[in-house]
UniProtKB/TrEMBL annotation:
<feature type="short sequence motif" description="'KMSKS' region">
    <location>
        <begin position="333"/>
        <end position="337"/>
    </location>
</feature>
<feature type="short sequence motif" description="'HIGH' region">
    <location>
        <begin position="10"/>
        <end position="20"/>
    </location>
</feature>
<dbReference type="InterPro" id="IPR033911">
    <property type="entry name" value="MetRS_core"/>
</dbReference>
<feature type="binding site">
    <location>
        <position position="143"/>
    </location>
    <ligand>
        <name>Zn(2+)</name>
    </ligand>
</feature>
<dbReference type="GO" id="GO:0006431">
    <property type="term" value="P:methionyl-tRNA aminoacylation"/>
</dbReference>
<dbReference type="Pfam" id="PF09334">
    <property type="entry name" value="tRNA-synt_1g"/>
</dbReference>
<keyword id="KW-0547">Nucleotide-binding</keyword>
<feature type="binding site">
    <location>
        <position position="146"/>
    </location>
    <ligand>
        <name>Zn(2+)</name>
    </ligand>
</feature>
<feature type="binding site">
    <location>
        <position position="336"/>
    </location>
    <ligand>
        <name>ATP</name>
    </ligand>
</feature>
<keyword id="KW-0067">ATP-binding</keyword>
<comment type="similarity">
    <text>Belongs to the class-I aminoacyl-tRNA synthetase family. MetG type 1 subfamily.</text>
</comment>
<feature type="domain" description="Methionyl/Leucyl tRNA synthetase">
    <location>
        <begin position="3"/>
        <end position="396"/>
    </location>
</feature>
<keyword id="KW-0479">Metal-binding</keyword>
<keyword id="KW-0175">Coiled coil</keyword>
<dbReference type="GO" id="GO:0017101">
    <property type="term" value="C:aminoacyl-tRNA synthetase multienzyme complex"/>
</dbReference>
<keyword id="KW-0648">Protein biosynthesis</keyword>
<keyword id="KW-0963">Cytoplasm</keyword>
């Protein structure tokens, strides 16, 4: 079986914050690493890219008085280096919507959908001051559904409803703030109505789709699907390929969704295997996982399936859409202007990236909005990573060196207590895998931590430091079982904290985790000679939480000097 892993393409007009990271790219990376262990590296492709087109980038470029491509060239280079080199995100292909492969694919794809495309004239807001139509984020106003006063022309951030500029109450230009007038313009529309029943059937019958995705998609469908505008009057984007559509561009959400396919195409073109991309999109032969924020659910659970069905090419529909709720920062929304939150070029200067990776997954907002707090972050590092896992590794490696010359002993007649922990190990590997398959990443970490805690309790009960003097066989069985728990935990931790997991594997002399397979976590081995004990994790200082604001101020001053001027 082939596995496609897709992360939502981040808007590239600025540096992402930690909430952006956990909502898509980090979650996707954790899953991709698991999938490679489970299904084999050659059977997994992980793609994403910089979303460079559309109104958010165009507005930002106007404000900064530069061409949009000047901004996105710089942002793509800066952010992709952060993702890949700093955060250790294991993309097979991190590309961009300015890629020639992507632009050509999008044009060809939409030319194949003419059966479902109509041309209509509509009345749209126009700013007489800035001399442009106001689609999407070029216009703000009051949401007609929830009353939020700063809703955008494409979506309300508060209630999540998809909008159109004509629905906004008291609309205003996002650039100059003036009230727009209404003018007629011609646009191309993609008709979603023919796909209402097949999408409803697909989403309803899915056994693995999260409930928040099902609920949002079905609500949208039950309200009645209708044609949605496929083109915009923007100058920045992919030129619409339809006859008579000169001066129009493709709406960013329609083209960005197709980036998952074009990025796969591009990846295999670079490998000199131009037809292999189809293996990862063929219906019935692939499992596909999409990691997104909850505000993107309608696009991935309705519009993307509709486009795939409309193409008639037999594309596989999403198997799981892992949509997170929002991560808050100490009870508040992340805000660049108010300096609330932490950005991905700041966090690594505060603590180890693997600590951050684990903290963010432990706080991953899978069912509801979650609140990042420094007190919880300290607890995760000091108690869960250091005490539960690091202490277990250190105890086992130390005792193997002290009592068995570093060699993992061969077992003999395991006791009921020994067999109980082996059963727990096997159960944890299976439970963790099942949680991964449903994109329940936080739950997977809980299973691993429970195994580590049980192993520590087992060591305390068996007391091999005493038994080695009176019953060496029992002591050797204890350390045999404990070693294999450590080995299993290292394999299961690899998707979350790849560098630290490899440090554990190095210490127990087990080779390269990149070459490991998931199911080998259930194998029991002996005869290995382990290395010398070294601390894997280090506790944060006891006063860390009290001094964190001072640390943040210092880090921000440092980052301010390093971050490109256009991205400040």
């Amino acid at each position: 079986m082939k596995v496609l892993v897709a992360s939502a393409w981040p808007y590239i007009q600025t540096v992402p914050h930690l909430g952006n990271l956990i909502g898509s790219i980090l979650s996707a990376d954790v899953f991709a690493r698991y999938a490679r262990l489970k299904y084999g590296r050659e059977n997994v492709v992980f793609v994403s890219g910089s979303d460079e087109h559309g109104t958010p980038i165009e507005i930002e470029a106007i404000k900064r008085k530069v061409h949009p491509k000047t901004l996105t060239d710089l942002a793509h280079e800066y952010d992709s280096e952060l993702f890949i080199k700093t955060w250790n995100i294991s993309f097979d292909n991190y590309t961009r919507t300015e890629s020639e492969v992507h632009k050509a694919f999008v044009r060809d794809f939409f030319l194949g959908l003419t059966k479902y495309i109509t041309v209509e004239e509509e009345d749209l807001p126009y700013c007489e001051n800035d001399k442009l139509f106001l689609p999407d984020r070029f216009i703000h106003g009051t949401c007609p559904y929830c009353g939020y006063e700063d809703a955008r022309g494409d979506q309300c951030d508060k209630c999540g409803r998809l909008l159109s500029p004509s629905l906004l109450i008291n609309p205003r230009c996002a650039i100059c703030g003036s009230k727009p007038v209404i003018r007629k313009t011609k646009h191309w529309f993609f008709d979603l109505r023919p796909f209402s029943d097949p999408i409803k059937k697909w989403i309803t019958l899915s056994q693995d789709m999260p409930e928040n995705v099902k609920g949002t998609a079905l609500s949208w469908i039950n309200e009645g699907l209708k044609p949605r505008s496929l083109t915009r009057d923007n100058s920045w984007g992919i030129p619409a390929p339809f006859p008579g559509a000169e001066g129009k561009t493709i709406y960013v959400w329609f083209e960005a969704l197709l980036g998952y396919i074009s990025a796969t195409v591009e990846y295999f073109l670079r490998r000199g295997e131009p037809e292999r991309w189809k293996e990862f999109w063929e219906e019935g032969k692939v499992r596909s996982y999409y990691f997104i924020g909850k505000d993107n659910i309608p696009f991935h659970a309705v519009i993307l399936p509709a486009m795939l069905l409309a193409s008639g090419k037999g594309y596989s529909l999403p198997s799981v859409i892992g949509a997170t709720e929002y991560l808050m920062y100490e009870g508040q929304k992340f805000s660049k202007s108010r300096r609330i939150g932490i950005w991905i070029d700041e966090a690594p200067k505060i603590m180890d990236v693997d600590y951050w990776r684990f903290i963010l997954i432990r706080m991953r907002p899978e069912e509801r909005d979650m609140n990042f707090t420094w007190s919880e972050a300290v607890k995760i590092v000091n108690t869960e990573l250091n005490d539960d896992i690091g202490n277990l590794v250190n105890r086992v490696v130390t005792m193997l060196n002290r009592y068995f010359e570093g060699k993992v002993p061969e077992p003999a007649n395991l006791s009921e207590l020994d067999r109980g922990l082996v059963d727990k190990l096997n159960e944890t590997v299976d439970k963790t895998s099942n949680l991964f398959e449903r994109a329940k990443l936080r739950g997977a970490t809980e299973e691993i931590l429970n195994l580590a805690r049980e192993a520590n309790a087992y060591l305390n009960k068996k007391a091999p430091w005493d038994k080695v003097k009176t019953d060496r066989t029992d002591a050797s069985n204890t350390l045999f079982v404990s070693f294999n728990v450590v080995r299993s935990i290292a394999i299961m931790l690899y998707p979350f904290i790849p560098v630290k997991a490899q440090e554990i594997y190095d210490q127990i002399n087990q080779g390269d985790l990149n070459d490991e397979r998931w199911d080998r976590a259930k194998e029991l081995i002996y005869g290995v000679v382990v290395g010398k004990p070294r601390p894997i994790f280090k506790k944060l200082p006891s006063d860390f939480e009290k001094g964190v604001n001072e640390i943040l101020d210092s880090v921000r001053k440092e980052v301010e000097k390093e971050r490109p001027t256009l991205l400040k």
